[in-house]
Amino acid sequence: MDKTILYLLYYDIFYYFMHRLLHTKMFYLIHKIHHKKQIPDYFDFYNVDIVEIPITSVGLGVALYLHEIYVYQLLCSILIINVRGVMAHETNCVFLLGDHHLDHHKYIYCNYGEYWLDYIFDTARGRQARINQE
Ligand SMILES: [Zn+2]
Ligand SMILES: [Zn+2]
Q1: For the whole model, what pTM was predicted?
Q2: 68 C-alpha to ligand 2 centroid (Å)
Q3: What's the CA-to-centroid distance between 113 and ligand 2, angstroms?
Q4: I need a labelling partner for 70 at 20 to 30 A (CA). Which of 80, 89, 109, 126 fits?
């Protein structure tokens, strides 16, 4: 598997669980600053408590610990994480990435990570309602 994809997988999976943890009563204090605006813009990707950056990047650390380090692929994955994160917070980018993360800002207790993870763990917005209709 390409290391860039591998690093992204680790990042996304850990990010999902860390983000869910940040929405618990005990840790929401750290994450609250990121949810100041219901309709964020691109720069709000970086509008986080300084503690949140290492917490949500644990997955990359685990990937580097368990697998070989390829600097170019690591830099590519970090670039993708940043560009994707910025775009996920910008309403003008909905046509490219959808509104999955924008809905997280609007409804808070859903859409914690990438769509496929929210789908698997049943936290995608509206999924529960769709399941009940089937
Ligand atoms: Zn959040
Ligand atoms: Zn956000």
Answers
A1: 0.90
A2: 30
A3: 10
A4: 89
Q: Are 123 and 111 in contact (CB under 8 A)?
A: yes
104 alpha carbon – ligand 1 mean position (Å): 7
Residue 68 in tokens: 């070989």
132 and 38 Cβ atoms separated by less than 8 Å: no
Cα-to-centroid distance, 80 and ligand 2 (Å): 16
For 22-33, the pLDDT digits (tens) are 999 999 999 999
Residues 4-23 have pLDDT tens digits of 999 999 999 999 999 999 99
Q: How far apart are CA 22 and CA 30, in angstroms?
A: 7
CA distances from 13 to 51, 76, 120 (A): 19, 18, 11
Distance 70 CA to ligand 1 centre (A): 30
